[in-house]
Amino acid sequence: MERRKIMICDDDQGIVEMLELFLELEGFNVICEINSTNLIKQLMTHRPDILLLDLWMPLLSGDQVLKIIRNTPEVKDLPVVILSASVDGAAIADDLGANGFIAKPFDLVDITSKINTILSH
């Protein structure tokens, strides 16, 4: 079976590296992007199965990125899980049409189960 592709976009290098390591151990193919302004181009190039997207990033915030994704025909149906330490992150994620929300600091087991649930639909 082909490994599922996950893209992570977060401006925190430490979080990105930890997630990448963990998800690769879980059998996923992981692509990372620290700079949110490159994300749409990267999505078009790599065509991931799911995107883990940080909400609060400099330059282009996660909510702006998600709006662009949902308005870009080639990637509009991409499952997106919002990562955020924001108390109202879940509500924001829901309003934006994200497929899931994970609060920071996160539980790695929770992330895997959420990803697997979304990908199995």
UniProtKB/TrEMBL annotation:
Family annotation (SUPFAM superfamilies): CheY-like
Entry-linked SMART domains: REC
Sites of 4-aspartylphosphate modification: D54
Alphabetized InterPro entries for the sequence: Bact_response_regulator, CheY-like_superfamily, Sig_transdc_resp-reg_receiver
UniProt entry tagged with the keyword Phosphoprotein: yes
Response regulatory domain residues: 5-119
Keyword vocabulary terms for this entry: Phosphoprotein
UniProt keyword Phosphoprotein, yes or no: yes
GO biological process: phosphorelay signal transduction system
UniProt-recorded name of the protein: Response regulator
Organism per entry: Sphingobacterium puteale
